[in-house]
């Protein structure tokens, strides 16, 4: 039996461990690395990493879109002066590798042994004839309209190629410097737009820090109110908060010790743990208060509480942690880390609940219950009436459940796996609106990458390979949806045009091998240019076809890629040139191919573990099915809600079902573990179920309200993924407590074959 003398060394040890955890937690840093969401260990990722070493990453850029003043076009001299000034400014910035701008774009012309670069735009030249001439040349020249200027000539764009995988601090400094210069140049915020990985990275991390503080504050306020409403004592509020906040420090400390950063997924850990971790403390305090109400001495009441609650809490902590651990089946590193460290934190919360909480209760004087026991049977009265109503209408409960379940399954069939590059930002988010600007006015922000490999020993700069590549380009622009494309074909055509006086009509492939060889010999001055080296290796053994398009989403991209592969099989000679899709967008899309498999794997592990636990407790297959049904029904109902609401399955929403099942089964484990104890003393199954219903009902309702309320704070997130995690898990738990208080007792009384001797002695599985 626990004593006060034992409480002091326990508290001292826990205090020292919490201090150590706090030290490591203080080392945590916020991070949002786009590359972390690539499928770890995938062969396509390994290939892309090698491809990027040869040609560079396809997302190390920033797009700066500038809108011309009202009533003017991008050819306005004063506007071009500001564009040119901005271009020169960003060219001098650290971590900027190259800049492509309307004022740096030139039409190269080769005359004799010299190369003359004729500008397409002439900043500051007020001559209307010059502007008309520039406009005519630009609109005739391929690759300028939709890339450097918008089709309506109302906007221009500057592309900044940055250092590979630029981290957040230098990236933020660069963006801040660009914004300051834009302000100095007189551009209002509505007149310029920024897009690119670095922009999203900066915004995501800043918002993570704010939202983490907001959600924790909201959760603390909400849970404090619910705890006060439930226990009406200061210690009933303070002690659970101390335990759970201590568990959060421990969990973050473990993350810090392993060098893990806080990202879009792990940012949910403190809120998740704060809400989920309350379960054990509430079950302990509820049982403790109940025993005290029966007149039991304090230490004896605590000992009974620990004996009766420890088994069920241990099992529920195990099932909840397994629900998170199953996320480790994901190939996406942030989800893997979130599942691993949240699962560990749940187990640490269990340890604190049965060490720190009992120690603090021992040191407190025996609490004076606010409501005397003889007058405090309100919970028993409410639960007793609810139990009678459920049994009296059991056929109606089952019928309604069956109808809702059938409708949910039918609706769930409409769920589709689909995601976009900025899926976690709401439609009205300013950052997303900036990205949409580039989709409306320019080529878009979704990169496209295809590797080109000629026949063994060949070169991509041979006429057969170039003609095959040109066919692919044509298909990609006319059918696939690329609005901008560049490849070795672009280089050869540009060289041919330059060697023919810059005449746009000469922008085409050579007619013969002999002409191509003459072009390549005279193209040596161009081979040193970065744009040439970014598309062809020096020996010609590999080429790159790159482009941009609107972000059509992974579902549409999958259909486009399937059609592209069919086109390549039917029209491209693989003995001449071989192709392979690669790039960051392709890798992100590939994550979606694994979502269903990861979700099914996680749910299967969850269900298997719960099955083994129930079999170990009751040695009954019937009871196993009885426990699973009320916990799977809410999952299917929420899947139906997703189908009706048109919520797609994506990286953020794919984790909902495994987490929700692991948490929802928590209360069921508490219920059946108490039922097992009651069955040891009761020969009547009905009386045992009713007594368990009254004993566990209050804790089940209170913990469910706290869980639902805690998760509901996430709906205030500016990230759609976090919003849906909060909303859908909250709904699952809400439906779960309804199913547990209605379906579970009905199913137990209908199907479980209670044999008192079988409970006391080991018997074969029935």
UniProtKB/TrEMBL annotation:
Keywords assigned by UniProt, alphabetized: Cell membrane, Membrane, Transmembrane, Transmembrane helix
GO cellular component: plasma membrane
PROSITE patterns in the cross-refs: SSD
Keyword Repeat among record annotations: no
InterPro entries from the UniProt entry: MMPL_dom, Mycobact_MmpL, SSD
Residue ranges of domain SSD in the record: 241-363
SUPFAM superfamilies from the UniProt entry: Multidrug efflux transporter AcrB transmembrane domain
Major location (coarse): membrane
Annotated localization: Cell membrane
Transmembrane segments: 212-231, 238-262, 268-289, 310-332, 338-364, 396-415, 595-618, 625-645, 651-672, 693-717, 723-752
Membrane topology label: Multi-pass membrane protein
Protein's name in the database: MMPL family transporter
Organism for this UniProt entry: Hymenobacter aerilatus
Lineage: Bacteria, Pseudomonadati, Bacteroidota, Cytophagia, Cytophagales
């Amino acid at each position: 039996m626990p004593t006060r003398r034992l409480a002091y060394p326990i508290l001292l040890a826990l205090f020292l461990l919490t201090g150590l955890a706090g030290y490591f937690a203080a080392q945590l840093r916020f991070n949002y690395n786009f590359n972390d969401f690539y499928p770890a260990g995938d062969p396509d990722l390994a290939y892309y990493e090698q491809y990027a070493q040869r040609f560079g990453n396809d997302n190390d850029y920033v797009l700066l879109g500038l809108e011309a003043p009202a009533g003017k076009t991008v050819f306005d001299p004063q506007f071009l002066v500001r564009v040119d000034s901005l271009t020169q400014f960003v060219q001098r910035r650290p971590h900027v590798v190259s800049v492509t701008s309307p004022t740096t774009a030139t039409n190269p012309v080769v005359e004799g042994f010299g190369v003359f670069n004729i500008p397409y735009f002439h900043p500051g030249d007020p001559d209307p004839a010059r502007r008309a001439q520039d406009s005519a040349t630009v609109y005739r020249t391929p690759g300028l309209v939709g890339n450097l200027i918008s089709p309506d000539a109302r906007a221009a764009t500057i592309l900044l190629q940055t250092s590979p995988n630029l981290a957040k601090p230098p990236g933020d400094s660069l963006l801040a410097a660009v914004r300051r210069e834009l302000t100095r140049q007189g551009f209002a915020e509505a007149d310029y737009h920024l897009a690119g990985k670095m922009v999203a990275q900066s915004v995501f991390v800043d918002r993570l820090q704010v939202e983490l503080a907001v959600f924790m504050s909201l959760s603390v306020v909400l849970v404090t109110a619910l705890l006060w409403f439930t226990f009406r004592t200061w210690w009933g509020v303070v002690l659970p908060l101390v335990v759970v906040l201590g568990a959060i420090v421990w969990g973050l400390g473990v993350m810090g010790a392993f060098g893990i950063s806080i990202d879009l997924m792990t940012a949910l850990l403190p809120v998740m743990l704060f809400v989920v971790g309350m379960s054990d403390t509430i079950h302990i305090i509820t049982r403790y208060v109940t025993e005290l109400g029966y007149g039991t001495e304090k230490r004896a009441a605590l000992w009974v509480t620990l004996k009766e609650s420890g088994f069920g809490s241990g099992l529920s902590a195990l099932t909840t942690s397994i629900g998170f651990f199953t996320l480790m089946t994901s190939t996406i590193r942030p989800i893997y880390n979130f599942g691993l460290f949240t699962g560990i934190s749940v187990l640490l919360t269990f340890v604190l609940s049965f060490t720190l909480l009992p120690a603090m209760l021992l040191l407190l004087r025996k609490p004076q219950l606010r409501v005397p026991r003889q007058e405090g049977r309100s919970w028993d009265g409410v639960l007793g009436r609810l139990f009678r109503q459920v049994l009296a209408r059991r056929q109606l409960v089952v019928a309604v459940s069956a109808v809702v379940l059938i409708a949910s399954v039918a609706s769930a069939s409409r769920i589709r796996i689909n995601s976009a590059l900025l899926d976690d930002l709401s439609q009205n988010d300013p950052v997303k609106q900036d990205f949409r600007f580039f989709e409306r006015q320019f080529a878009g922000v979704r990169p496209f990458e295809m590797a080109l490999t000629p026949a063994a020993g060949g070169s991509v700069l041979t006429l057969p390979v170039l003609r095959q590549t040109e066919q692919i380009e044509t298909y990609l622009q006319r059918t696939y949806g690329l609005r901008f494309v560049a490849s070795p074909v672009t280089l050869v055509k540009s060289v041919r045009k330059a060697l023919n006086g810059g005449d746009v009509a000469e922008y085409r492939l050579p007619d013969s091998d002999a002409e191509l060889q003459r072009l390549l010999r005279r193209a040596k001055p161009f081979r040193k240019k970065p744009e040439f080296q970014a598309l062809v290796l020096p020996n010609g053994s590999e080429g790159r076809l790159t482009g941009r398009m609107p972000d059509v989403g992974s579902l549409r991209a999958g259909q486009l890629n399937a059609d592209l592969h069919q086109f390549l099989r039917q029209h491209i000679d693989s003995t001449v040139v071989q192709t392979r899709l690669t790039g960051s967008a392709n890798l992100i899309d590939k994550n979606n191919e694994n979502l269903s498999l990861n979700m099914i794997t996680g749910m299967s592990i969850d269900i298997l573990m719960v099955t083994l636990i129930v079999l170990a407790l009751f040695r009954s297959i019937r009871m196993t099915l009885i426990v699973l049904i009320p916990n799977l029904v809410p999952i299917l109902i929420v899947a139906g809600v997703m189908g009706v609401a048109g919520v797609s399955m994506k990286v953020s929403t794919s984790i909902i079902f495994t987490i929700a099942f692991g948490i929802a089964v928590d209360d069921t484990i508490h219920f059946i573990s108490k039922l097992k104890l009651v069955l040891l003393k009761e020969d009547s199954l009905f009386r045992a179920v009713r007594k368990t219903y009254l004993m566990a009902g209050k804790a089940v309702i209170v913990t469910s309200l706290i869980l639902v309320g805690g998760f509901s704070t996430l709906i205030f997130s500016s990230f759609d993924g976090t919003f849906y995690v909060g909303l859908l898990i909250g709904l699952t738990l809400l439906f779960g407590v309804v199913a547990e208080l209605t379906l579970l007792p009905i199913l137990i009384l209908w199907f479980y074959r209670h044999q008192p001797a079988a409970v006391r002695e080991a018997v074969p599985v029935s």
